[in-house]
Amino acid sequence: MMEEDVDTRQEVARKYRAALAKIKAEGRTHELRDVLDAKSLKALKAEKEGVLDLTLKVRSLKMAGRDVRRGNINVVRLLSDVLRTTLGPRGMDKLVKDSFGFVTLSNDGKTLLEEMHPQHPMGDIVYRLAKAQDANVGDGTTTVIILLGELLKAADKLLTQKVHPTTIIDGYKRALDETLRTYEELAKRVDPEDDALLQRVIATSISGRITDREAEKISGLILEAGKAVMEADGDGYSLDEKDIYLEVKKGGSIGDSKVFPGVAIFRKVDHPNMPSRIDDASIAVLEFPLEMVKGDTMGKVVVQRAGDIERFLGEERALMDGWVQLFLDAGTNVVVSKRGVSEYVVQRLVRNGVIVISNTLKFDIERLARATGAMVLYAISDLNESYLGRAEVVEEKEVWKGLKMTFFDGCKNGKLVTIFIRGGTDRTVDEVERTVKDGVSVLKKVLREGLMIPGGGAPEAEAAMRLRRLARGIEGREQLAVEAFADALEVVPKTLAENAGKNPLDAILDLRKLHHEGKRTHGIEGISGEAKEMFSEGIVDTLGVRAHALRLACENATSLLRIDDIIQVKKIAKVASGDKKDSMVEL
After folding, report:
1. What CATH number is attached to the domain comprising 346?
2. 182 in the same domain as 113
3. Catalytic residues
4. Cα–Cα distance between 304 and 312 in angstroms, integer?
5. Is the domain of 292 the same as that of 378?
6. Is the domain of 267 the same as that of 401?
7. Are residues 37 and 174 in the same domain?
8. Are residues 410 and 501 in the same domain?
9. In 117-197, at which residue ranges do the beta strands (DSSP E only) sit?
10. CATH of the domain at 513
11. Residue 139 has what DSSP assignment?
């Protein structure tokens, strides 16, 4: 080995020793458990003028073993406890104010976590869990987080009793399989023609976000929209939520919300003399303006005689006349443009009975093109009859006092509907919009699977009773894990009773008694907090939503129990061989 390399390694080792001494003097030894020594570094690279640039990678282990699990569980429990009070028809709302001063008022689990921006790694995992639940089934985000928190809380008690995490995981998996079997036994088939039953399923899923009367109104609108666009698919029905458009407008009340056939946009026709209705519409969807646009560079027109002005304007009018003729030759009777349309073009089209709608939002342009089958045009030269969209009716209507919308019904690409949502404030319409989206997802799920289960925590109470019986026949400490899983399941009926103002302990004891008597479908009615038969009360939920929430919560609970170390790279420091100061090493 060359003498220069030996000296370099000795210099690196000296700097390491100095850095470690500094850490020990500051009492930060618990933050440093593993430092890569000089021998494990990659080949040293010599740079210009003999200055050596080293990258020292430092790993910092904040917690290990039991401390890691305890810390992770506490974070998840904290988030779970925050959301528990939002569950059920008597659930409370949360107001979240971010660093920019924007306020969000909601009781939707995924929305609240998204606005809270939890910084802890476990907080991010919980948010992703709620996001996955919402993306897959569209509902049950609060339930999945509450179950996760309670499963980890029960596991924490076992950990303090020296039960190994792998034993808890095995017991949880066994209990999960038994609980899912219980769910399937309690499930009933849904008649897709039973509108009253379908509406109760939707109303149960959105309860607590709006008042009972408003929930009945919104669930009816969701059902009306879903029935209009659903299609037979084998033995069941399929529903594409993309066929249901939402339009929100502040003003009025939630009860003023309506369902309209076709696609509706918040634009009215550009001229009062235009027809308010056109049958058998041929629609041109434009991305470009129908007006003379100023150039990007400086330019000027030199006028030497008075006739030059008239000739210049005449050429502009001739150009726009050519545009109008192209529309007429293609058979266009409705023009929708993302940009402006000149008054001259509007007047010419009015004379020919053509509807013009200008300055339309990009979102509206895209969905109109999708619904009507139109090709979005980016130049007037692209105009062609084959690129036009088709709709049976295009009509301007007044949907509220002084508020007009344009409706496109009987569109080429299938059945489409628009749910028009009203509310007194921006926050109200935002919350109702989120509620409608979740309700549509639940309807889609129940139509596809055709199965429902009792709500009110009845499946969880029944499964908890069966798990305790199952645990008696299990040998070893795994029995404790199965019993802990049963205790965790009862958090759903407990929370419903507590949010309704009842004593959760008394409510769960009454519910246990009923289930031991064989009343398998009894749960907690969320308004009164009393134990009642759920099917007769119309409190039902979809099997897919509840099963997915439980499975997701259990899988994430077992994954978090496997974590015994948190490793975080703190800093990367550069050391120059020509610098003799220890302060160059930042750890």
Report:
1. 3.50.7.10
2. yes
3. 108, 141-142, 438
4. 12
5. yes
6. yes
7. no
8. no
9. 188-189
10. 1.10.560.10
11. S
Per-residue pLDDT in tens (0 to 9) along the chain, 587 residues: 455 556 666 776 676 677 666 666 655 544 444 343 333 334 333 333 333 333 333 344 444 556 677 878 888 888 898 899 999 888 888 888 877 778 888 888 888 888 888 878 888 888 899 889 888 888 888 999 999 999 999 999 999 898 999 999 999 999 999 999 999 999 999 888 888 889 888 988 888 777 778 888 999 999 999 988 888 877 778 888 888 988 888 888 888 888 888 888 888 888 888 998 999 999 999 998 888 776 566 667 677 777 777 777 778 888 888 999 999 999 999 999 999 998 999 999 999 999 999 999 888 898 899 889 999 999 888 888 889 999 999 999 887 777 888 999 888 877 788 898 888 888 888 888 888 988 898 898 888 888 999 999 999 999 999 999 999 999 889 999 999 999 999 999 999 999 999 999 999 999 999 999 999 999 999 889 999 999 999 899 999 899 999 999 999 999 988 887 666 555 444 444 444 444 333 33
The reply to whether 56 and 90 lie within a common domain is no
CB 407 within 8 A of CB 389: no
Pairing relationship of beta strands 417-423 and 355-357 according to DSSP bridges: unpaired
> What is the full DSSP assignment across 313-343?
HHHHHHHHHHHHHHHHHTT--EEEESS-B-H
Per-residue tokens: 242:
């993309």
**Helix/strand/coil for 427:** helix
Alpha-carbon distances of 49 from 8, 552, 578, 579, 584, rounded to whole Å: 15, 58, 10, 13, 19
Q: Does 75 lie in the same domain as 44?
A: no
Locate 14 and state its tokens.
């000296």
Domain-embedded: residue 422: no
Task: Indicate the DSSP class of residue 52.
Answer: B
Q: Please check whether residue 146 is in contact with residue 495, taking contact to mean a CB–CB distance below 8 angstroms.
A: yes
Q: Is residue 438 part of a domain?
A: no
Domain identity same for 53 and 92:
no
Residue 340, class by beta-carbon neighbours within 10 Å (0-12 exposed, 13-18 middle, 19+ buried)? middle
Q: Does the residue 57 lie in any domain?
A: yes
- 140 assigned to some structural domain: yes
Supply the range of the domain harboring residue 127. 67-189+454-563
Number of separate domains in the chain: 3
